[in-house]
Amino acid sequence: LTSPPMQRTRPPLQSWDIFCRVIDNYGDAGVCWRLARQLVRVHGKSVRLWIDQPATLRALCPTLVTDAARQQQEGITVCHWPAQFPATTAADVVIEAFACDLPPPYLQAMAARSTPPCWLNLEYLSAEPWIADCHGLASPHPSLPLTKYFFFPGFTASSGGLLRENTAAATATAANSTGQPPSLNLFCYANAPVAALLNALGNTSWRINVSPGQPRQALGSHFGGDGPWQHGHHHINALPFLAPDAYDALLRQGTVNIVRGEDSFVRAQLAGRPFLWHIYPQADNAHLDKLTAFLDLYTADLAAELAHIVRAIFLAWNTPVTAAHLAACWHDFHAALPALAAHARCWQAHCQQLPELSAALVDFCQRLPSGHPGLTA
Ligand code: TRH
Questions:
Q1: How confident is the model at residue 376 (pLDDT cuts 50, 70, 90)?
Q2: Considering 28, 52, 123, 248, which one is annotated as catalytic?
Q3: What is the mean pLDDT of the segment spanning 278-285?
Q4: Does the pLDDT of residue 109 top 80, yes or no?
Q5: Does the pLDDT of residue 377 top 50, yes or no?
């Protein structure tokens, strides 16, 4: 792996192909869909989004037809990525999302171009320090005249930054909810200690909004039925799956947002509200290193006592602990909410200063030399 020589040599790279393989849930589709929208809306690019499971994307784009080979949605050409990949020409820029392995016929189409495409592997978001050394590195293909670059989203200026939509809605200040009960938006995996959290909420009346799928099932297995439920003072409402902009708006209104995975985790930070992250569990607890790396950054500017409170509740939410321990962590977190709401706004401002991922991708590609860098470097 090498760092590429960077120069501004290319004419604008207009056509983009994004490849998305749905591993599970919504994160893969969510990231690719938002990136595609941003490339079209903000950068005026011509984008094809190749996705192997259009049904998953339909949750994010309700007008999508799931059995169409190709269709237009919000200015994006959404293409089904079938097992037998069709003959096509390769785009100027190829985004391989999360190392999803491009189809061999498409690799051949890339190699057949007179100028090889900019080929980027869009990596998973991580706050771990090592990504700074790997962001932008080149990896020549073993047999074809193609070079792939690794592109890491992240929380520092030396990373690829975060996907930030700059629409009026995304930057609007949330309406004042004074007089309303505090709201808790719940989007988590099935193994979250939901029952323990509900019992920890105490005497404050919370309005709890539960997303469908695993969060709703966690509630259903506790209370039975599909909701709504009443638990002590708390009203628990079962939400439908919201379109992305509506979900972002919900997060901006939340007193506390519980989010998961990768993309809702980013949306919660951009919403500028206190949040808890249910991280995607990995083998050998590798996710706990990612969680700790994020907490190191997120709490760096907090007073020691507040930093301790945040670490304690994030860890309690993500590791097997007793209900009593979770309740104690929640109690401290709840008491610190005014200070943590101010911190969430500071962190939101930090996120707004980071590179915007789609702009960083466009810039990176434009600055690559136009030949095959493995040969010209
Ligand atoms: O759904 P997730 O768990 O997705 C992913 C995948 O599991 C992936 O394989 C894994 O690698 C990754 O997590 C870490 O969580 P995530 O990333 O938060 O994606 C959810 C998407 O769905 C996000 O774009 C927000 C969106 N969303 C809505 O648009 N409306 C909704 O109502 C909800 C609840 C979510």
A1: very low
A2: 28
A3: 94
A4: yes
A5: no
CA 261/CA 188 separation, integer angstroms: 8
Query: Computed from CA positions of residues 31, 37, 42, 44, in that sequence, does the dihedral angle turn out positive or negative?
Result: positive
Structure tokens at 359: 């702009």
> Annotated catalytic, 52?
no
* 27 CA → ligand 1 middle, Å: 4
Q: Is 51 helix (H, G, I), strand (E, B) or coil?
A: strand
Ligand 1 atom closest to 34 (CA): 24
- Pocket of ligand 1, candidates 22, 24, 26, 250: which has the most ligand atoms within 8 Å of its Cβ, to mutate? 26
What's the mean pLDDT in 44-48? 98
Closest CA to 91 of 30, 152, 45, 130: 45
Probe ligand 1: pick from 31, 184, 264, max atoms within 8 Å of CB? Answer: 264
DSSP conformation letters of 168-208: HHHHSPPPP-TTSPPEEEE---TTS-HHHHHHHSTTS--EE
Task: Identify the pLDDT of residue 202.
Answer: 87
- Would you say residue 170 has pLDDT above 60? no
Q: Is 85 in the pocket of ligand 1 (CB under 6 A)?
A: no
**Cβ(223) – ligand 1 distance below 6 Å:** no
pTM above 0.90, yes or no: yes
pLDDT for 11 equals 84
**342: amino acid identity, one letter:** A
Q: Catalytic site residue 128?
A: no
